[in-house]
Specification:
It is a single chain. The chain is of the alpha/beta class and 227 residues long. The protein has a single domain, classed as Rossmann fold, CATH 3.40.50.1110. It is built from eight helices and ten strands. The protein has a five-stranded parallel β-sheet, sandwiched between helices. The chain starts with a helix and ends with a helix.
Amino acid sequence: MIPKRERLYKIDKAYEYAYTNGVKHRAPAVNMEKPYVAAIGAAQTFGRYVERPYPLILSELINMPVINLGRAGRGPSQVEEAELEILNNAQYVIVQVMSARSTSNSEIEIIDGQRGIIRATGEKVAAEDFYKDHLPERAKCIKESKQFYVNEMIDLLQSIKSMTTVLWMADRKPGKTVYQFPHFVSASDIDDIVFHTDNYVEAVLTHEGYYPSQELHNLAAQRILES
């Protein structure tokens, strides 16, 4: 049997990519002149460490192409114009609940979803390092990030002309503000966000490690289909 770490490494090196409307994304590409569904989110939508991410499974279930616009560290404000064109041309769009850690605040400017610049010093730092083990002293900026995040999610949903489903895909249900993916996003934040979408789906399954398991991807596709 192949050791787990080696197996995940092999999956991580075997991703295939494609281009649609000039946007590089996880394969397959879609023909924008024919009906398709779009899924946008972070590494969870991309399908880090899984061979069959939920957009691919969903495509097979509905017999329609589903473009995977998942990107590591993406926050709701980090959507390119070409990506928005893809979303607005889709029959339907699935928007993953991303991490509020990917949102800037008065103390840190997030530059790519995963790294940031501390405003007071200009120091570059991983978002993980800025928050982890420093939660009590970051309370003010976490509160700011949560509000900015909700506003950015609403802005994204309102910018999409197609029908939308907001997808909560995690190993916990929405609850209190905690440092667990999707970081800092609470039940009250979800209540504010879902008012601006056509549908809301939860796929919750305990899994080992940070990234969703293949079983959680299977569940997410099934939950979307049932909705």
